């Protein structure tokens, strides 16, 4: 069934309360054509990440949320509402578990078999948990990452550097803007011209070249002039990356965000884009083999750039693991971006704090931007981001903002927003949530927990405790997912969203959730032996029993 979905705007309830209303509007916002990659298939982002299992489930979700009471909780099993329980007003209004499988069964073939039977769906991270806000969501994380690359290798700026990447989809489309925001030049390869054009429309990508020669000429000139510029080029990364390496193009930074985590979503060399979906569905094993063989070529070229002295990193899409399965032995010669750049931030409980204005009014986001600047005047990079985001980010769906905040900061921002709703400074409630890619909410040995100091990469108790503590603290909806950005069998992660509706009760819940949620990250890193996390725990009063007494 095809239909165009758009969340309600304004301050009139369409449900029995703002906690339910927040969940309903964000479910619908995830499927807004401005936000979702393939709304007709209920796919929000990340290849196959869905907001609801199928259309009957979607309608049942909407129906149930519309009627849900303040002391009830809807249970969602992989995108389908399966129960409504009597709980209490501090309890979440929605609890979601998406894509989870028992360890030995956690493989793509088994997942797909169950998916085809209509028993499960892929929830990605924020698709099935209804807090995807379009490409801006990843933009801040990508901006942070490229800032960290600049700090590590290029004296704090990417001016005069050329970054090569691929994959200009829902998440990957943030890369060109994140690079230019850091002053650099970006060349981005995608097999699908429409993906590049869409990012030009969103102002995330500056231009699309007519050919590889044309692209090389444009990026070389910009690099020489130390001018920020992003250029897209149509092509298969498994062919274009080796070609650029062979031609000796002076590339300083190399990464990739094709949907490599799912070999059926990565286009193999020699396959036409138009035939890919039918081919993958008809012959998944053959398609997977060909995709992995192409990824092996793609990653071999990345290692070639590494050998030539470039800064190379895996951007959280499992391409190293897939290339290794495709027979390439040196795939893990370059690191994942988390151990390389993000872990020090995680030790401070710092991560992707995001919010969306249920009013639909951009003026509400402008007011919250001012509140953030007012709350954290000492944080210069935060101020730079908020200013650039205000100028450069085109909203998709409900107006939203993201910035990375740490332990002791998120709760202050959340309480301030709730006060602004209460005072009428904001015209309607806001929802406050985050990605599952956060400091204490994910176990993912190829990404967020790669190379933990104590070797605890695959321990998955932490995200489960995270979901439990957010449930116990008063979040509006809480989710536990499996797979996410790295694929089935490779991660378990949790999310939470709170609705700031301006009530005193919401204020109390928000204060607890936004203290305890990042504190999970602090204690997780203290437990793994990170000294900086211990200092943050001491400074912010996070209790860690094994360090007491
Ligand atoms: P997407 O499906 O929206 O986009 C993937 C893009 O890759 C598409 O535009 C597709 O045309 C292109 N593509 C596929 N095969 C290609 C090939 N051989 N050569 C060139 N282009 C090709 O996915 P997305 O939401 O942008 O996510 C991209 C990847 O990043 C996923 O694996 C996702 O799990 C991962 N991811 C990483 C992070 C992170 O923190 N770094 C966060 C979320 C997702």
UniProtKB/TrEMBL annotation:
Coiled coil start-end: none
Primary location recorded for the protein, binned into one broad class: cytoplasm
SUPFAM superfamilies: Urocanase (SSF111326)
Limits of the Urocanase Rossmann-like domain: 134-341
Cofactor needs: NAD(+)
Residue ranges occupied by any Urocanase C-terminal domain in the UniProt entry: 344-538
Gene3D superfamilies in alphabetical order: Urocanase like domains, Urocanase superfamily
EC numbers: 4.2.1.49
Record pathway: Amino-acid degradation; L-histidine degradation into L-glutamate; N-formimidoyl-L-glutamate from L-histidine: step 2/3
GO molecular function, one term: urocanate hydratase activity
Protein name per the record: Urocanate hydratase
């Amino acid at each position: 069934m095809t239909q165009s979905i758009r969340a309600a705007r304004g301050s009139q309830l369409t449900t029995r309360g703002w906690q339910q209303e927040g969940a309903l509007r964000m479910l619908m916002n995830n499927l807004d054509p401005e936000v979702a990659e393939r709304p007709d298939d209920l796919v929000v982002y990340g290849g196959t990440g869905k907001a609801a299992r199928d259309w009957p489930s979607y309608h049942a979700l909407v129906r149930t949320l519309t009627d849900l009471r303040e002391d009830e909780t809807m249970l969602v099993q992989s995108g389908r509402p399966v129960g409504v329980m009597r709980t209490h007003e501090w309890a979440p209004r929605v609890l979601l578990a998406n894509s989870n499988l028992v360890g030995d069964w956690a493989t793509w073939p088994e997942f797909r078999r169950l998916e085809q039977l209509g028993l499960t769906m892929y929830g990605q991270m924020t698709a099935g948990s209804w807090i995807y806000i379009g490409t801006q969501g990843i933009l801040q994380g990508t901006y942070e990452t490229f800032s960290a690359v600049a700090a590590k290798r290029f004296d704090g700026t990417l001016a005069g550097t050329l970054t090569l990447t691929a994959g200009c989809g829902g998440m990957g489309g943030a890369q060109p803007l994140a690079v230019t925001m850091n002053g650099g030049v970006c060349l981005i390869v995608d097999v699908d011209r429409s993906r590049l054009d869409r990012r030009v429309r969103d102002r995330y990508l500056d231009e699309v070249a007519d050919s590889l020669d044309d692209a090389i000429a444009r990026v070389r000139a910009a690099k020489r002039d130390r001018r920020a510029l992003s250029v897209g080029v149509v092509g298969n990364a498994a062919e274009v990356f080796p070609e650029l390496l062979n031609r000796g193009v002076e590339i300083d930074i190399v990464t990739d965000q094709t949907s490599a985590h799912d070999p059926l979503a990565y286009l193999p060399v020699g396959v036409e884009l138009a035939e890919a979906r039918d081919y993958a569905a008809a012959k998944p094993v053959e398609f997977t083999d060909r995709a992995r063989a192409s990824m092996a070529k793609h990653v071999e070229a990345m290692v070639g750039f590494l050998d030539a002295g470039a800064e190379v990193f895996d951007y959280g899409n499992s391409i190293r693991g897939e290339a290794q399965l495709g027979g390439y032995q040196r795939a893990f010669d370059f690191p994942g971006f988390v151990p390389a750049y993000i872990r020090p931030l995680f030790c401070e409980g710092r991560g992707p704090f995001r919010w969306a204005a249920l009013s639909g009014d951009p003026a509400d986001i402008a007011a919250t931007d001012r509140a953030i600047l007012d709350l954290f005047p000492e944080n210069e990079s935060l101020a730079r981001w908020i200013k650039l985001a205000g100028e450069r980010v085109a909203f998709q769906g409900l107006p939203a903002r993201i910035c990375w905040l740490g332990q002791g900061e998120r709760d202050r921002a959340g309480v301030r927003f709730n006060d602004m709703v209460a005072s009428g400074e904001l015209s309607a409630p806001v929802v406050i949530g985050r990605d599952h890619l956060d400091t204490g909410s994910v176990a993912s040995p190829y990404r967020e927990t790669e190379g933990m100091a104590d070797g605890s990469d695959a321990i998955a108790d932490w995200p489960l405790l995270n979901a439990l503590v957010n449930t116990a603290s008063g979040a509006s909806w809480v989710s536990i997912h499996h797979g996410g950005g790295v694929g089935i069998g490779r991660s378990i992660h949790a999310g939470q969203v709170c609705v700031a509706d301006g009530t005193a009760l919401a204020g109390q819940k928000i204060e607890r959730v936004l203290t305890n949620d990042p504190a999970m990250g602090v204690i997780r890193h203290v437990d793994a032996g990170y000294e900086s996390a211990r200092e943050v725990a001491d400074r912010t009063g996070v209790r860690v029993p094994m360090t007491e007494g």
